[in-house]
Structures are given as C-alpha cells and as structure tokens.
Amino acid sequence: MVFVLEQQEGKELRELEPKEHILNIKQLDIYYGNDHAVKDISLDIEKNAITALIGPSGCGKSTFLRAINRMNDRIPGARCEGSILYDGVSLLDKEIDISALRKEIGMVFQKPNPFPKSIKDNITHALKFHGITKNKKRLKERVKESLQQAALWDEVSDRLDASALSLSGGQQQRLCLARTLALRPKVILLDEPTSALDPISTGKIESLLMKLKKEYTIVVVTHNMQQAARIADHIAFFYQGELVEQGKTEQMFNHPTEKRTASYISGQFS
Amino acid sequence: MRIQTVNRIATSIIILCAGIMVTIMLTILGYVLFKGIRFVDWHFITTVASTFNVGGGIKDQLWNSFYLLVITMVFTIPLGVAGGVYLAEYAPDNRITAFIRSCVEILASLPSIVVGLFGMLVFVNTFHWGYSILSGAIALTIFNLPVIVRVTEDALRAVPQEIKEASMGLGVGQWYTMKKVLLPAAFPGILTGIILSAGRVFGESAALLFTAGLTSPDLDFTHWSPFSENSPLNIFRSAETLSVHIWAVNSVGIIKDKVAVASGSAALLVIIILLFNLAARGLGALIQKRMTGK
Amino acid sequence: MTLNKEGMTPLPIEQSSTRERLIKKSPSVKGFFKRESELRGKWLIYCGALIIIIATVSLTLFLVWQGLRVFLFDGVNPIHFLFRSDWNPGDAKHPTYGAFPIIFGSFAVTALAAIVATPISIGTALFMTEIAKKWGDKALRPVIEILVGIPSVVYGLIGLTLIVPFIANHSDSIGYGLLPGMIVVGMMILPTITSIAADALHSIPNELKNASYALGATRWQTIAKVILPAALPSLLTAVVLGMARAFGEALAVQMVIGNVTTIPHSLLEPASTLTTIITLHMGNTTTGSPFNHALWALGLVLLTMSYIFILIIRYLSRRRTLS
C-alpha cells in the first residue's frame, strides 16, 4: 500500500530529477545466536539524501546500520542473510574486501570516539593505512579539507598537534566525522551521532549533515523524532526488528499509514 | 553486651594484623638499608669483588645484573607483548586458546628454581652454552614471560572498545589498528608492568644459579667487542649477578668481610628495586597525563 | 513490509568500477614483506603465542624425562625414593636414595609458613576492606608492593643475620632450622596472600554486607557469618597460591634451614627441602652420575607439586564460578 502511495506521489518528482538508489537491501535477516534481531527487511537508500532510521531502542535499527559496512562481522554468533547491494555489488559476499568497503561506506558512532592521539593523527591514521598518500603536503591538505568539511577547522587550526581528547564532546564528534570524510567515502552511516551531545553541538552536526548530503549519501539512526523531521529526506520506522513503514519525511509525519508509526511519531511510546 | 566485647576484641585483632604487616615491612626496609648503607660507597660500587681478601666491591656483579636485565628484556618484551596481543585480540574462543592460557598460568606459578633447572638442562648442558649470560637471559625470559603477557592483555582489555571500533570502522586492518591505536593507548599500563617486572628480574637469583653461574671472568671495561673472552658485552661468558652474589658470599664464599659485602649489596639491590617501583608509577602516570592532554 | 522488492525502476549500474574496488585482491608474496602487512603482523603475534606453548611443553617434558632417569637407568626404586629416610647418594660404596626427609621438609616449611602467614594476611585484608575502608587500601597497597618487590635473597640474608642469631641466643639450638625457615618463608608469602585476599573481599557485594548490618549484626558477626563464608573459595585460592610460592622458594630457605637430611623432631632442629638440596649439590655433582640424577628426581617432585598446586587452584576457581 505504502509503496503505491509513494509511487503516485513521487511520479512528477521523478520526472524532474530521476532518483538513484545507491544501496538496495533485500530481505535482510540478522541473527545473534537465536535472537532474530532484524527481520526480513527490504529498503532502498537514495543517493545524496539523508535517510533516517527511527524506532524505539532495541528495534534493530543500529544492527541494521552496522550490517551495511559489515561491523557485525566480529560479533561472535552474528549471522546475516539476504542481500545488500551497493552499486550493484553484493556486500555480504565472501569476496568483499571489508577494508575497501568501509573506506567507501564510512561510519560515525554514538559516543564520540577519537583516538587518544593528536587531532591531525586522528585524520591521517586511516589515510596512511589505505596508502592514499604518504606525501606530507598532501596529507596536510587532506587534514585541512576534511576538517573544513566538518566545520571544525576554524576551531582547531592552531592546535592540530594537541590531543584529540582535549576537545569538547561536540568537537570530538565532528572530528570523528572529519576522519571519515577524509577517506572521501560515498556513504556515511551515523549511529545516533548526537545522542551524547548538548543541543548546540547537536545543531551544528545537523546543519553539517544537511550540507554534506550534496556530496554524500547519509544514513542516520536516531531516536530523536524532531531530529529526523528536521534533517531527513526519507524515514524508515523500525519496530521489534521489523521495518514497519518507510517513506518521504513529510508523508511519514503527516499521513503515516500504519497505526504503530502514528503512535510512535506522536510520542505515545518510545 | 558479650557480643559487643567479642566484636571489639576481633576488631583489635584485625588492626593488630595490619600493624604486624606494616611493622614487618618497616623492619625489613629499615634493617636492610641501615645495616647495609654504610658499606655502600663509590669504592664499593667501582671495585671488583675479591675472592679471598677483605675490601672487595661489586662492580662486575652490578654490571652483570643490568646487562642480564637488558638482554632478558630484549627477549621478553616482544614475546610477551605478542602473547598478550594474541590473548586480548586475536585468540579465537577454542581449545588452543584455552591451552595457551593454561601455559601462561603454569609458567607463572612454576618456582624460579625449576625454570633455572630447565635452563641448565637445555641451554647449559644440551646446547653446550655453559654457564652464560645467554642461558641466564633465556631462563629469566621464561620466568618473566607470563608477567608481561598478563600485563599486556590487561592493559589492552582496559582500552575502550569504541576506539577499536572507530579504527575498524574506517576500514583499517586489525594489525594496523593494534600497532597504531590500541598498543599506544595501552602503553602506559604495559610500561608500568614492564618496569615492575624488571625489578623482579633484577632481584631474581634461583633461576640464575645454574644458568648464568656463580662466577664471572675478570671483566675488561676497555674492551667492548662482544666476542672477546672477558668483554663485558660477551653473552657467552658466565655472569654472577648482584643477588646471586649475596647468596654466594654467604653460602659458598670464604671472604672474611662477607657481612659487609652482603649487607652492602642487599641495600643497593633494595634501593634499585624501590627506584624501579617509583619509576613505574611515575612514568605510567606521566605518559597517561600527556596522552589525554589534561 | 517488502515494499521495494519489485516494481522499482531498475538502476543504472556501473558494475565494473565498484566491483573492482571492493573485491579482495589475492594476497601476494611481496605483500607479506611490506611494513604494514596485516598478514605479517598476524604471523608475528601467532609466533609469540607459539613460543609460550613451546616453552611450557618442552620445560615439562625435559624435566620429567631427566627426573625419571634415576629410576629408569640407575635402578632406584621410586617407592624407596619417596618413602625411605636414608638419603646418602654421595656415598662412594653404598649410595642410598631415600628422599623422604627432604620431601617432608618441603611440606613442613610450606605448611608452617602458611599457618603463620594466613591469619596475618587475612586480618590485613579485612582491615583494608572492612575496617579502614577509606584509607586502608591506599595505605597498605604500597606496603604489599614493597614486600613483593624485595628479592628472596634479601629475605634470606635477614633470616641469616637477624633471625638465626636471635634464635640461637634465646634457645639452646644452633639457630638454623625449621623455625627460621618458617618465619622467612612466612614473611615472603604474606604479600601474595594479602593482595589476593583483599581482592576477594572487595568483590563481595555490598548488599550482602548491608543486609547483615541491617539485621543489627555487629561488624565481627558480619565478617564471620557473612563475609568470610562468601569469600571462602577465593581466600583458599590465595592461601594455595601462597603455599605454591613457599614450596618453590629456594635460596632464602637454603640460607637458614641448616640443610640436614634427617627428619626434624622440633621446630628448632635443622632440616632441608627439595629446593635447598638441589641448590646445594646441583652445581657440584657430575652430570650423568646417579647422585646428579637423584637431584633431578627431586626436581621432578618439585615440578609435580607445582602442577598439583595449579590443579588445586583451578578446582577452587571453578567452584568459585559455579557458586
């Protein structure tokens, strides 16, 4: 039903600017041992847009997000079935080079987690590993560029060698974003990136994401409904491991088709 | 009323126990330092030991102790850190890992003289290295390895999991993450453990009796070629350390001033080990402070 | 729920480029020698783990084999060796190998040291965790650390120059014997038992203690009826670890025990232990001689006991995790 609705609404739009989906997830099931954490989820992620995954905690949205760049691989007993196509390539294949995958699909975590190193080293760490450049000058340019993209450059340009742990929580989270951006990924996955931050820092990150979507595809998990409404183009509502409903933001907020969506969005449960 | 009396008596006994503990520590330190310190002077430290006469020093023994410590650490640190990294990060949850854990436990609880016997059997006799610094250093490595393994594993496990995820999330490999993020983050803890274990190695004697030996050749401190017979750097020569010296002058020695030599050596040994302890605490805290930038 | 499965516009896919970037490249030999090679790092780590195994296994096998020689090649009866008291392997004509007094000595020193050290250690641990909760731990940890750090020869020297003369002056014995051995080894295992006991007492949940205090129990009643029983397996582990250390202690004991291979009848009589006889004679006997082999057999007894201590500790820790 929902699908029909969306197609009707989006008809004119699609003619104006043809939409492209960078990620196609089909019938994805994730198990932790006997726990069926994510149930038969199919979802397409639009390129250069922000998709927000919402739902009460424990609903499988973080697990789903982590599956996209295979962060669940190292969890003992975790199992993934179904398919995730990224630009037509199946990401769950054994053949996939996880390192190369994560370079293209970056991730920012809930708690700011900078390395206990200097601000500069936080950004060059992965650049050096991937062998992107060894040239000092080019590394420096990359550092500057990514810090500028993350709107952090003006605050830290004079102390790049200071410990990243001396930054405030909000700054740390933008640094984490910057080091992901430094790899020039195609997709950025954010797992509740502002839940540990104050409102001002949250605002900064949100406006940053709005800007970044021109160049990147962004998937963000959030439990904050207002945040989803402010920044997302698309919303997917997860509940107890299932994808209940998904669609454009306005439509999800104004005319949710599912009762559960409506009651979650209106704050009847969380 | 009676219950209260019992309680009071029991409490007093417990306090007495703690008092005894502190008294023992103070007595030992006080006795060793005050009895020995008057024999420790520049002459004592810079004179070679005497076999018969009064007035010998401990120059060679002191050198041997430090040299053996360095060689031991050269072996132990890479092996122990590798073992700790394995157990903290690479070990799959299977029988081999459980077996390695048992091995670490066994090595940790073996008496040091047993390790010394093994060193004698294999390195001194079978490999024909004789009583030598190399045999001693390998025995001490086996003795010290489990300590470094545990220290490394504990320090790595204390590093927040989020930091590892952050690095892996950027596509950085396990080894590079270990080398550039996790090990540096665990460094203060590992360093503290290494210095503390260095104190233990420095004072060890039973493992060395039958591996590094009870004698040293006359060391020629102008001759540094590691292959020369009496070069201080030669690792195939026998080497009596300071702690072995303390035992030897009392048990098998014939010098008249053995009380002076033993007391002086003991005071010096205890001072050096206390310095190791202080350095371990101080350095660990300092690096931690620097790293967090606070 | 399966919204987008069918009916969506098919995507224009540039297979080649993305696929090329994301598919694993086959590992090259050259790559292994690169500085940042993941594979090389893994090998390095596995080598470390392997060496731990090699060291433990070879140590055990070599010492067991060497320790059995006296029984296999020199015709010594193991029963005689373990239970007879005629230790005289140096005798040129009629060497005898009854090592019972030596084995007895090791057990005697271990048990006596544990008897001396356990009450003081557990008392101190109780002081740190129950009496002076705020500062006890902070004040006594350094004390424990210093005691741990003092080398065993220094303990031996103190025994030799302080305790032995003291006993000689205050009794009609020569001073050397089980008593100074017990005191010296007891002091040495104090910090071992105390620190593990303190950790064990720390891990007793506060709710348990508060429940007892809430019922009006005194501090001692709480300690005796609640805390000590709850911590018992861990406290036993602490004592066994201390005993393992006491059993293997060599030079400090050797300096004060007197090294006589007869069974002592009182604390003031000299005795000997496995470690002291090995220390005294291992360097002076000819490799391959029956006397030398007998010493290795003593080493084997020592090794076996170490393994038994480890098994006891394992048993205790399993019981701890079960309860």
UniProtKB/TrEMBL annotation, chain A:
**Which Pfam families did the record assign?**
ABC_tran
CC terms in the record's Gene Ontology section: membrane
Where does the ABC transporter domain lie? 23-265
- Enumerate the GO terms in the molecular function aspect: ATP binding; ATP hydrolysis activity; phosphate transmembrane transporter activity
Which biological process terms from the Gene Ontology are attached to this UniProt entry? Answer: phosphate ion transmembrane transport
Keywords, alphabetical: ATP-binding, Nucleotide-binding, Transport
| InterPro entries found in the cross-reference section | AAA+_ATPase (IPR003593), ABC_transporter-like_ATP-bd (IPR003439), ABC_transporter-like_CS (IPR017871), P-loop_NTPase (IPR027417), PstB-like (IPR005670)
Q: What is this protein called?
A: Phosphate import ATP-binding protein PstB 2
TrEMBL record, chain B:
InterPro entries (UniProt xref) = MetI-like, MetI-like_sf, Phosphate_PstA
Q: Where is it located?
A: Cell membrane
Give the UniProt keywords, A-Z: Cell membrane, Membrane, Transmembrane, Transmembrane helix, Transport
Q: Provide the Gene Ontology terms for cellular component.
A: plasma membrane
| Recorded GO MF terms | phosphate transmembrane transporter activity
Transcription in keyword set: no
List the SUPFAM superfamilies.
MetI-like (SSF161098)
The protein's matches in PROSITE patterns, at most eight in alphabetical order, are given as: ABC_TM1 (PS50928)
Q: Where is the ABC transmembrane type-1 domain?
A: 62-280
What is its membrane topology? Multi-pass membrane protein
Q: What is its main location?
A: membrane
One of its GO biological process terms is: phosphate ion transmembrane transport
The membrane spanning regions, by residue number, are 12-34, 66-87, 99-123, 129-149, 181-202, 266-287
Q: Which family does it belong to?
A: Belongs to the binding-protein-dependent transport system permease family. CysTW subfamily.
State the name under which the record lists this protein.
Phosphate transport system permease protein PstA
Automatic annotation (TrEMBL), chain C:
Transmembrane annotation, as ranges: 43-65, 97-122, 143-168, 174-201, 222-244, 294-316
Q: How does it sit in the membrane?
A: Multi-pass membrane protein
**Protein keywords:** Cell membrane, Membrane, Phosphate transport, Transmembrane, Transmembrane helix, Transport
Where does the record say this protein resides?
Cell membrane
GO terms for molecular function, please?
phosphate transmembrane transporter activity
Domain of life of the native organism: Bacteria
Q: Where's the ABC transmembrane type-1 domain?
A: 103-313
Q: Name one GO cellular component term.
A: plasma membrane
Q: Which GO terms of type biological process are on file?
A: phosphate ion transport
Tell me, in a sentence or two, what this protein's role is. Answer: Part of the binding-protein-dependent transport system for phosphate; probably responsible for the translocation of the substrate across the membrane.
The record's comment on protein family reads: Belongs to the binding-protein-dependent transport system permease family. CysTW subfamily.
List the NCBIfam families: phosphate_pstC
What is the protein's given name? Answer: Phosphate transport system permease protein
* Species whose genome carries this gene: Pullulanibacillus pueri
Gene this protein is translated from: yqgH
